[in-house]
Design goal:
Blueprint: H1 2-20, H2 25-33, E1 39-55, E2 62-77, E3 82-88, H3 92-104, H4 110-138
Antiparallel strand pairs: 1-2, 2-3
Helix pairs in contact: 1-3, 1-4, 2-3, 2-4
Length: 151
């Protein structure tokens, strides 16, 4: 049971990285690391929408924030591994590349793929997050109160 939980956690982590990747980046890294393997579609890339839910103050009652466009697909490699992808926006090629990476991460190629695709994507996401944090920090205003000597 513990092994299954660890597998789910790690798969959840790489699926998150793939879903947040900039347009074209997953395909670029995948193609640079290996030739794409043969696969069959379980669900060809299709574009749709999903409802985004939020909570007030992150703890309040949930409410429907609005809809978001997504692209999803599922495929199976000739070796039997199944890959899925859900990508924000209308990006069929990115969904295909993400599903391929998901399937390959369940194969013996997982460690080399982690180094050549996932680690660079994680670095890109960390750099983008740091850049956003730097921009936000530049606009920060510190308020303080001076004690007045009114008696």
């Amino acid at each position: 049971m513990e092994d299954t939980l660890d597998e789910r956690r790690s798969r959840k982590a790489w699926m998150s990285v793939l879903a947040k990747a900039p347009e074209g980046r997953v395909a670029e890294l995948l193609d640079a690391s290996m030739a794409r393997p043969e696969f069959d579609w379980l669900r060809a890339p299709e574009i749709g929408s999903t409802m985004v839910r939020a909570r007030t103050g992150a703890t309040g009652a949930p409410f429907n924030l609005g809809e978001m466009t997504i692209t999803r697909c599922a495929l199976v490699l000739s070796s039997g591994e199944v890959g899925h992808a859900y990508i924000k926006g209308r990006r069929k090629a990115d969904a295909e590349a993400a599903a391929l990476v998901d399937a390959l991460m369940q194969s013996p190629l997982a460690e080399s793929l982690r180094k050549s695709v996932l680690v660079p994507l994680e670095a890109d996401l960390a750099a983008a997050k740091a850049a956003r944090a730097g921009k936000a920090a530049a606009t920060k205003v510190d308020f303080f109160t001076l004690v007045r000597g009114d008696d």
